[in-house]
Amino acid sequence: MRDMGVDEASETKLKRLEAQSFSVRYPDGTRDAHLSGELSVATVSQAVGEFDAWQSGDISKIDMSDLTRLDTAGAWALVTLQARLSDGGAPVEITGISDKAKSLIETVEESMPHVKTPPQSQKSIAAFLDAVGQRVVTSVLFLRALTGYLGIFLQRLARAIRHPSEFRLTSLVHHCEEVGVKAVPIVALMAFLIGVVLAFQGSVQLQQFGAEVFVVDLIAISILRELGILLTSIIVAGRTASAFTASIGSMKMREEIDAMRTLGLDPAMNLFVPRILALLIMLPILGLIANLAGLIGGGLMAWIDLGISPAMFQTRLVEGTSVDHVFVGLIKAPVFALIIGVVGCHAGMQVQSNAESLGRMTSNAVVTAIFAVIVADAVFSIFFARVGI
User: Fold this and answer.
1) 20 to 30 A Cα–Cα from 291, which one of 165, 209, 266, 283?
2) How far apart are CA 242 and CA 362, in angstroms?
3) Domain locations in the chain?
């Protein structure tokens, strides 16, 4: 009984293999090819071997009326053959095809990867002006989007003031810690080293004129007016803009923002307002810490290199430096905070549903925030110079 079962199984398998046959006939006097049998994954290797022997112009028509079965592997072989012969300048026509097989071939053809040939670069004045115009339009649209996000933040902030119950105080405290408290060590160290470098380089130059005492003015004005808040903002832009983009972008990738909207929660109120408001609160404080650390570093280096005692440094600092320099630096802090926060939140909302988009937008947010902060600082410098402050 067992032997009989084995024989029956072998016979069934042999019949199945005989059914999975494929052949091609070439009628005399024509350039036609008649396919018969089964063009499937079981016979596609045989079919591809037959098709590869065809050169452009050898076959003008493929008759599939005798084909008993066609699956996606066979459709792939036909689509590949058609593409190769068409590229050779002699397209082939498929006849005797059923509607079902035709739909399968069209589906496979649409799913095939298509290599896009990059357009030839045109080195003409018109092409150059067109590229410049596109860049300008893209920049204007980007600035418009940032302005829109700034308006969203201001509107939600006003609503939070009118309806305090909608404001997330816990989230604000958390982001204040992330944005400000955890940034204190790196900001203080950076400012301290900048003060040391300014004092050392200034002393080298001022010693040539016997004006070593003016190194105090150099350190004070440079740090209090420009470098303290500028370098602090650049460090915060690198830390915070990327963190905002990564946090909001990952939430968008996981569709958590859509879930928030479904639950009736406003993403702008819950995500934008606490983050940007935390920056507005903490960046001036970080600027003050940077100013203090920079003055300490400069005073220490002036004491070591020039022999200017801390008491003399303090006296010269109070007598020769106006408090206006401190206010000029701190006035910039809220503007820089808004720039960093808006850029980071906007970039996070532009993340698509893939990790590559998240990395690209995080990098773009850091670069854009730092560039915008430097441009804003230049505008402030020109403005204060014009008004005589």
Assistant:
1) 209
2) 5
3) 14-111, 144-387
Structure tokens at 281: 């609160």
Beta strand 22-25 pairing with 61-70: unpaired
Domain range 14-111, CATH class: alpha beta
Q: Tens-digit pLDDT profile for the chain (389 aa)? A: 344 444 555 554 444 444 467 777 777 766 777 778 888 888 888 878 777 777 776 777 787 887 888 888 888 888 887 787 777 777 777 887 888 888 888 888 887 776 666 666 667 788 888 888 999 999 899 899 999 999 999 999 999 899 888 888 888 999 999 998 999 999 999 999 999 998 888 887 877 777 777 888 888 888 988 888 999 999 999 989 999 999 998 988 888 888 888 888 888 888 889 999 999 999 999 999 999 999 999 888 888 877 888 888 888 888 877 788 888 888 999 999 999 999 999 999 888 878 888 888 999 999 999 999 999 999 998 898 888 77
124 CB-near residues (< 8 Å, 6+ apart): none
Structure tokens at 191: 């400012």
